[in-house]
């Protein structure tokens, strides 16, 4: 464990500073022991109110929900420690001796990360245990061991995720004030994430909740990786003030987007071609994912829906059959859909995949991409159950415009995937902002040069040619 000794040296240094600062300890102690009491009173009042109307399921889920909330609040207060880990020392003038030591960059970074995670975790877990002691004395049934493990795991991964993001902000900021203002970009998304987790908790779907845990772990790992990839001692000491220079942003983006070309043909032949060459590995990954998810969506539909239908009541089946017979008219499909609507819809979908990828290092973008393709497979599965040949539907209803639309989706999603990969890859001599602008310029080259023209052609074919071909394929 000699490799861990330098990390522990940095951690002990930070721990000493925190234990001497009452402004950090006092809020943590208050939240650790006062908030569980307050939450217990709120939960007790809610239980009394809901019990009047027989809401036993809600009562059973209130204790796990309270544990989740109690574990979250100490992390938000302790976040100030991580936010000041680098930029705070820079303002106080105490970081130069640390950076002048023979410690490696990752020693310093992991030392700050470790103490940043330990402080909120100790407070959060102590608050949860204190709350459980209070609840046990009130003869309230505690959650099952599996649910307890999930809740403690969620608390741990939330702390790692938030602290990892806070340290990245601390490295990239030039003042404590700027770092604290950027903290909202950590607390608000995690609070929204916890709303979804709370819904799963009340729903009682433990398997999906474990998937949420896995997703948070992946995001935390990517944040740690991006922090290490862009941590540079010289860059940390050299920057004194942040200036939002729109002119520099536009000039840098234009330089990467246009290159040294002066004609559209040369731009395609040189600039767009170079951007395409960078995507051969991401495109391969996207093609593999497309085949797997398409087939999985089709197979899930043709195997699961009949089982669900067997369990349904006869009256429900009759209602569903009547609705399908009224609404399913493949001969007239597409007559009321215009090409501009299809084009704007597809462009909006590509933009949503990009935005989701930017805020999650491509993870959410990949999820949306997989959902889109799995829905296509599921749709063919539904039509197969209704008695239509899926081969004819694919050849006459999907392939005519799909040969343009699906490659466009694959290319744009591959460019989005490359953004996430390159953000967590060390870029020596380049700032994080410059890397982001370069990657966005590459995505825009692909989007403007290839994706949007393909989507435009696909919209025309889907609106004016596919319905006629589909009619021919179904009648012959």
Secondary-structure map:
Elements: H1 5-19, H2 22-51, H3 56-83, H4 87-92, H5 95-99, H6 105-137, H7 145-172, H8 176-181, H9 184-203, H10 206-229, H11 233-238, H12 246-258, H13 264-277, H14 280-311, H15 314-327, H16 339-358, H17 363-385, H18 390-423, H19 432-464, H20 466-475
DSSP helix fraction = over 70%
How many strand segments? 0
Q: What is the number of independent domains?
A: 2
- Coarse morphology: flat
Largest sheet entry:
none
Q: Structural class, from helix and strand content?
A: mainly alpha
From the alpha carbons, calculate the radius of gyration and give it in angstroms: 27 Å
- Terminus-to-terminus distance: 73 Å
Mean pLDDT: 79
Flag low-confidence runs. Answer: 324-334
In percent terms, what proportion of residues is strand? Answer: under 5%
**How many individual helices?**
20
How would you spell out the order of helices and strands? HHHHHHHHHHHHHHHHHHHH
């Amino acid at each position: 464990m000699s490799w861990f000794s330098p990390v522990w040296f940095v951690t002990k240094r930070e721990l000493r500073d925190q234990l001497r600062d009452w402004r950090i300890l006092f809020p943590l102690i208050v939240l650790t022991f006062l908030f569980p009491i307050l939450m217990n009173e709120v939960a007790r009042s809610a239980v009394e109110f809901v019990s009047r109307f027989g809401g036993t399921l809600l009562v059973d889920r209130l204790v796990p929900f309270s544990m989740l909330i109690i574990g979250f609040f100490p992390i938000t207060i302790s976040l100030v420690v991580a936010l000041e880990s680098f930029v705070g020392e820079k303002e106080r003038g105490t970081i130069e001796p640390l950076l002048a030591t023979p410690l490696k960059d990752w020693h310093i970074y992991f030392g700050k990360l470790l103490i940043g995670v330990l402080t909120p975790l100790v407070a959060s877990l102590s608050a949860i245990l204190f709350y459980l002691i209070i609840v046990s004395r009130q003869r309230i049934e505690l959650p099952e061991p599996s649910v307890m493990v999930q809740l403690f795991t969620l608390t741990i991964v939330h702390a790692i995720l938030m602290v990892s993001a806070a340290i990245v902000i601390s490295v990239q900021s030039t003042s404590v004030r700027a770092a604290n203002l950027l903290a909202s970009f950590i607390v608000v998304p995690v609070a929204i994430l916890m709303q979804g987790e709370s819904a799963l908790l009340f729903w009682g779907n433990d398997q999906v909740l474990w998937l949420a845990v896995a997703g948070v772990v992946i995001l935390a790992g990517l944040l740690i990786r991006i922090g290490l990839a862009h941590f540079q001692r010289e860059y940390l000491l050299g920057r004194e003030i942040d200036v939002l220079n729109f002119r520099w942003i536009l000039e840098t983006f234009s330089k990467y987007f246009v290159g040294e070309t002066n004609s559209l043909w040369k731009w395609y032949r040189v600039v767009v071609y170079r951007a395409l060459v960078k995507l051969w590995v991401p495109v391969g990954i996207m093609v593999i994912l497309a085949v797997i998810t398409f087939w999985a969506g089709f197979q899930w539909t043709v195997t699961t829906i009949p089982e669900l239908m067997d369990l349904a009541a006869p009256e429900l089946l009759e209602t569903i059959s009547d609705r399908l017979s009224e609404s399913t008219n493949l001969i007239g499909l597409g007559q009321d859909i215009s090409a501009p609507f299809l084009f704007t819809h597809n462009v909006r979908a590509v933009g949503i995949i990009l935005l989701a990828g930017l805020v999650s290092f491509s993870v959410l973008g990949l999820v949306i991409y997989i959902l889109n393709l799995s829905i296509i497979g599921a749709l063919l599965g539904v039509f197969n159950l209704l008695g239509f040949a899926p081969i004819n539907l694919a050849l006459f209803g999907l392939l005519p415009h799909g040969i343009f639309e699906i490659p466009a989706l694959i290319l744009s999603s591959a460019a989005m995937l490359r953004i996430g990969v390159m953000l967590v890859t060390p870029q020596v001599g380049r700032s994080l902002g410059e890397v982001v602008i370069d990657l966005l310029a590459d995505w825009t080259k692909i989007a403007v040069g290839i994706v949007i023209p393909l989507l435009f052609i696909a919209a025309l074919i889907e609106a004016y040619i596919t319905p006629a071909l589909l009619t021919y394929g179904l009648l012959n």
